[in-house]
Amino acid sequence: MSKVVRILVVDDSPLFVEALTMVLEEDPELTVVGFAGDGVAALRMVEKLEPDLITMDIQMPQMDGLTAVEKIMSSRPTPILMLTGDPARTGKKWHFDALKRGALDLQVKPRLITEIGADQATVEAEAEALRAHIKLLASVPVVYRRQRTGTITGTHRARSAQPSSTPRLGAVGIVSSTGGPPVLAEILEGLPADFPLPILVVQHLAAGFAPHLVDWLRSATQLKVEMAAEGAHPEPGKVYVAPSGRHLVLDGRGNLHLDGNTPPFHGHRPAGTILLESMARQCGAAAVGLVLTGMGVDGARGLAAIGERGGATLAQDEQSSAVYGMPRAAAEEGKASLIVPRHELARTLLEVSRRRVG
Question: Which amino acids are annotated catalytic?
Answer without folding.
Answer: 177, 204, 298
